[in-house]
Structure formats: structure tokens, C-alpha cells
Amino acid sequence: MANRIKEKYMAGKRYFDYPMLFLVIFLICFGLVMIYSTSSYKSTVTYGNSYHWLLRQAVAIVLGAVAMVVCCKLDYHIIKVRSLEMAVIGLVSYC
User: Fold this and answer.
1) Whole-model pTM?
2) Quick check: 54 and 32 in contact, CB under 8 A?
């Protein structure tokens, strides 16, 4: 029954989970606020910039988002064929 309804109303459309997107964006912003509120004094004293840890976290968020988009665009069949090489590279880079 659910498949019939989904096929009827979602025919030709790609589904995107907007509530999940908004939840992730909210959690990222909440985390940034928490990082700033807990580390602003210490980073001002230590680094002379109250935004030091906030900027580091923001850079990590941007890099993670770029990596996520790149991974989403990759063809997973290529990853399946090269899985052994990727595992070896991952293990070597970890050490």
C-alpha cells in the first residue's frame, strides 16, 4: 500500500529529506554557539582572538561538507573495484 502511494505521488521526483537537512543545520549552528560561548575567554587570553576555536570548527565544517558532496558524486562501483587499495591507503595514512 505504501509503495503504491509513494509511486503515485513521487513519480518522476527525487525525494529529499528537508527535515533532516534543517535538523543537521540547526545542530551545526548550536554546536558553533556552544563552542564560542565556552572558549571565547580562553582563546582571547591565549591567542588574542575570541573567534579562534569557532573559526577552526567552521573550517572543519566546510571541509566536511565539501568531502560529503564529493563522496556523494562519486560512482560507488569505482569504490567497490578499488576497495583494497583504498583500505591500504587508509591504513598507511592512519599510521
Assistant:
1) 0.68
2) yes
